[in-house]
Every structure is written in C-alpha cells, then in structure tokens.
Fold this protein.
Amino acid sequence: MTCQWQMGMLVMRECGQPAAAGCALCGRQICVAHTVMGGSGPACPQCASHTAGYEATEDSEIAGARNEYYSQYGGASAFGH
C-alpha cells in the first residue's frame, strides 16, 4: 500500500511512498515522512492539523491552510474530513 497523503495546495498530487502506518484518527495510510506523532498515536497531517496534542509540522500547517482556503467557498478541501 502507498501513502494516501496528497501534497500540494491547489494542485494535489499523491505522495506515492510506501505506507508505514495508519492514522490513529481516520485510518488513512501514511508514510514515515507524513506521519505526525501525538498523544493519540500516529496521525496524518490532516487530522493533526485540527486535533489537540499534535505538534505543528509543515504538512499539518499546509493541511490547515487548505481547509481554511476551501471553507471560504463552502466546501472542504479535496482531501479534507
């Protein structure tokens, strides 16, 4: 299985690296590079961006910015919850 994290802001592209774990919050498969560790276990950047107990990473900040951007138009990001 490959990492299900989609990189980018407006033009999304799949990571493509081998998955190493599943997000403890949503179950999405993620690679080592896109795993954010926190109090509930490994999380994808999307879940880490809006869950307390996870430190901010570049990917989680991008995920938060995507959610904020897409919410202005009444929708979730292409990869949001």
Notes: The chain is about 25% helix and 15% strand. The mean pLDDT is 87.
